[in-house]
Specification:
Helix content is 56%, strand content 0%. With 141 residues, the protein is mainly alpha-helical. The protein has a domain of 93 residues. The radius of gyration is 36 Å and the shape is rod-shaped.
Length: 141
C-alpha cells in the first residue's frame, strides 16, 4: 500500500531514498565496497611489506634472516628506514665469505700435510707458562 506523501515533499524522490521498513540497498553496497577495499588494501600492504623478504629468498641463509628481521622490525615499529635497509640488502648480493674462508682453510691444511677437516682436531691445546706472582707487573685500575 502506498502511503500518501507529505504535502511539502517532492513528488519525484531519488531512487536511493528507501521507504520506511525496507532494506537500504545503497548502504549495503557501500558496506560491501568498504569491506572489499579494506581487505584489498591490507593484502597489498602486506605483500609490499614482505617484498624484500621475497626478493632475498634465493640468497644466502644469513642474508635472508637479516632481511626478514628488518622487515619485521619495520612492520612493528613503523620505522621505514628498516624497510629501506631490508630492500637494499635484498638487492645486493653479498659475497660468500664462509665459502672463501673454508676454501682457504682447506688449502692451508693441505699445505700443512693434514687431511681437509682435521686441522682443528690435530693441534693439541698448548700450555701457557705464567710468571710467578712475585714477578707480575702491577695492574692499574
Amino acid at each position: 500500500m502506498d502511503a500518501p506523501l507529505h504535502p511539502v515533499a517532492s513528488h519525484h524522490l531519488p531512487s536511493f531514498i528507501t521507504p520506511p521498513g525496507e532494506t537500504d540497498i545503497l548502504m549495503v553496497i557501500t558496506a560491501i565496497i568498504l569491506a572489499g577495499s579494506v581487505l584489498t588494501f591490507g593484502i597489498v600492504f602486506f605483500r609490499l611489506h614482505s617484498l624484500p623478504e621475497r626478493m632475498a629468498h634465493g640468497s644466502h641463509k644469513l642474508q635472508l634472516e637479516i632481511v626478514a628481521v628488518l622487515c619485521l622490525l619495520a612492520l612493528l615499529t613503523h620505522i621505514h628506514a628498516f624497510w629501506v635497509a631490508a630492500l637494499l640488502l635484498a638487492l645486493i648480493d653479498l659475497p660468500d665469505f664462509p665459502g672463501w674462508l673454508g676454501r682457504i682453510a682447506g688449502a692451508v691444511e693441505r699445505i700443512a700435510g693434514l687431511k681437509p677437516g682435521d686441522g682443528t682436531a690435530a693441534a693439541p691445546p698448548q700450555e701457557t707458562r705464567s710468571r710467578p706472582a712475585k714477578q707480575r707487573e702491577p695492574t692499574h685500575a
